[in-house]
């Protein structure tokens, strides 16, 4: 996963910092300019974002019927 986060120093100056998280055992993180080498040829992976509370409720509702 590649991205940036916004840092503020004591004088309230803002600076964007790159980061990379690589799935290893369990994860490896790179911050700053070293992170850029892993993100230069990266591709976006699209996914469907689910409301997890609805998904969880749909799994628990059938269990409630078992106890009646």
Keywords:
2 helices; three-stranded antiparallel beta sheet; 68 residues; 32% strand; alpha+beta; 3 strands
What does this structure look like?
- The protein is of the alpha+beta class and 68 residues long.
- It has one domain.
- Helix content is 32%, strand content 32%.
- It has two helices and three strands.
- The protein has helices at 33-39, 52-66; strands at 2-8, 14-23, 27-31.
- The chain has a three-stranded antiparallel beta sheet, with helices on one face.
- A hairpin with a 3-residue loop joins strand 2 and strand 3 (27-31).
- The chain is elongated.
- It starts with a strand and ends with a helix.
Q: What shape does the CA trace take? A: elongated
List unreliable stretches of 5+ residues.
none
- What is the tally of helical segments? 2
User: How many strand units?
Assistant: 3
Number of domains: 1
Specify the oligomeric state: single chain
Radius of gyration over C-alpha positions, nearest whole angstrom: 20 Å
Strand order of the largest sheet: 1-2-3
SSE layout:
Layout (H helix, E strand, L loop, with lengths): L1 E7 L5 E10 L3 E5 L1 H7 L12 H15 L2
Antiparallel strand pairs: 1-2, 2-3
């Amino acid at each position: 996963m590649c991205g940036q986060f916004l840092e503020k120093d004591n004088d309230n100056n803002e600076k964007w910092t790159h980061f990379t998280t690589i799935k290893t055992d369990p994860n490896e993180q790179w911050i700053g300019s070293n992170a850029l080498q892993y993100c230069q040829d990266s591709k976006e992976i699209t996914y469907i974002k689910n409301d997890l509370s609805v998904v969880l409720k749909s799994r628990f509702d059938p269990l409630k019927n078992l106890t009646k």
